[in-house]
Every structure is written in structure tokens, then in C-alpha cells.
Design goal:
Layout: H1 2-7, E1 23-25, H2 32-41, E2 46-52, E3 56-61, H3 63-68, E4 75-76, E5 81-85, E6 98-103, H4 115-118, E7 121-122, E8 125-134, E9 140-145, E10 149-152, E11 155-158, H5 159-167, E12 172-182, E13 186-195, H6 201-209
Parallel strand pairs: 1-2
Antiparallel strand pairs: 2-3, 3-4, 5-6, 6-8, 7-8, 8-9, 10-11, 12-13
């Protein structure tokens, strides 16, 4: 919906919806470029929420939060606990990326007739199936679905990182990264892009090298 709103705007400067007091996005991740476009071209009153049907509201980022930390989805709401854990289920320190698990008194306790879904509920925590990190102040940042992680020779690479790097190039309108099976590296990252203007693949790769660690 946000993409359609932005694509439909006539040329011009400043917010097109100056009287909108609150625009909340909660159902999908917004890229850095899209967040900036919303703030500049739709309304500065952007709110970002993170939630699920099983847990309910989890975090909320207000305009003041986004002004300091553009990519956060906010801090835990009252009564909500958030932890970032590694593949063994052990909490990791602030700044480290891992799986997001949440605990709240009102969360779902079980699924009826769905053994596969039950695995999301372990030791009193609901495992969101998302990856993310917490900063020192408790602000949460999303890195995509756990299943979207790319295992490159035992090191974890997040499709979100590659997509954000590509979207930072002015010729790229959309980007999607996935892991391709590799005999040597287990998986290697492959990206597809939709372009606004012609650009060589070599230029996009060089662009990514300035924004990602060398091995990525």
C-alpha cells in the first residue's frame, strides 16, 4: 500500500498528506529508502509497529524514535519481553543478530491440531521466526525471516542486508536476495533487481562492496 501511494504521487516537494496525524505501518518491513520517502513525501508522522496474531502488539516506534534510529521498529511495549537468541536458544548480547523470541501474559499458549506450528512455542517463549537485533537502549531492528538466512560456509548472511545495499543504488527500484545451493560454500547469495535505469551488474556489485563486509 505504501509503495502504491508513493508511486502515485505527482512530482513535487514536501509531504503530500500534511494533515495526516498518524500513518502506521505494521504488516511488512519498510526499507530505509521507503521510510525516507514516506517521511519526505507523505507525512513526517510515520509510526512503525511490530506484532503477530499469536502475541499481539510487541513494539512501537514513534516519529521521535525514527528521527534518531531510522530502521528501528521500536522498543518492547509494557508487559512484553523480547530476547534475541542463537541457534542453540541462548540469549546473545546487544548488537548481535539472532532469532527473535517474545514472552507476554496474553500470548498464544498452543495450536489446535498443528504439531509443526507448536514448535514455535518453547520454554514459555514464542519464537517469531524472524531475525533481528536489539541495541543497548532496547530498540529492535528486523533482519528478515529465519528461513531467509543464507548459510555461506557456516557463516550467516541475511538477505535483508544485500537487499538494503542494492536499494541504496539510485538505479535500483526493487531487490530480492536468496541463497543458491553451492557444493563448496553450502549456499551463495544471488540477487534479482528491478531497475529504474540501465546499469551494469559489475557496477551494482562494486556498489555492494562499499556497503557490505568483504566476505558478504
Amino acid at each position: 500500500h505504501i509503495a502504491a501511494l508513493l508511486d502515485g504521487l505527482p512530482p513535487g516537494d514536501g509531504p503530500a498528506l500534511p494533515t495526516v496525524r498518524t500513518l502506521t505501518v505494521a504488516s511488512a518491513a519498510l526499507s530505509k529508502g521507503m521510510r525516507r520517502a514516506v517521511l519526505e513525501r507523505l507525512t513526517p508522522n510515520l509510526h512503525i509497529a511490530y506484532a503477530s496474531n499469536e502475541v499481539g502488539p510487541i513494539t512501537h516506534a514513534r516519529p521521535a524514535d525514527l528521527a534518531q534510529r531510522l530502521m528501528t521498529v521500536g522498543r518492547a511495549l509494557p508487559g512484553v519481553e523480547i530476547e534475541i537468541v542463537d541457534d542453540a536458544g541462548q540469549p546473545v548480547p546487544p548488537g548481535e543478530v539472532g532469532e527473535i523470541r517474545v514472552r507476554t501474559p496474553s500470548m498464544t499458549r498452543d495450536y489446535i491440531g498443528d504439531d509443526a506450528a507448536r514448535r514455535a512455542i518453547r520454554d514459555g517463549w514464542f519464537h517469531m521466526g524472524d531475525t533481528g537485533r536489539l541495541d543497548e537502549a532496547g530498540h529492535l531492528y528486523l533482519y528478515g525471516r529465519v528461513d531467509d538466512r543464507i548459510n555461506h560456509g557456516g557463516r550467516k548472511l541475511y538477505a535483508f542486508e544485500i537487499e538494503e545495499a542494492l536499494l541504496g543504488h539510485p538505479a535500483v527500484a526493487a531487490a530480492a536476495a536468496v541463497g543458491l545451493k553451492s557444493r563448496r560454500h553450502q549456499e551463495v547469495p544471488v540477487a534479482a533487481v528491478v531497475l529504474r535505469a540501465p546499469v551494469a551488474a559489475s557496477e551494482l556489485i562494486a556498489h555492494c562492496r562499499t556497503r557490505l563486509e568483504r566476505w558478504k
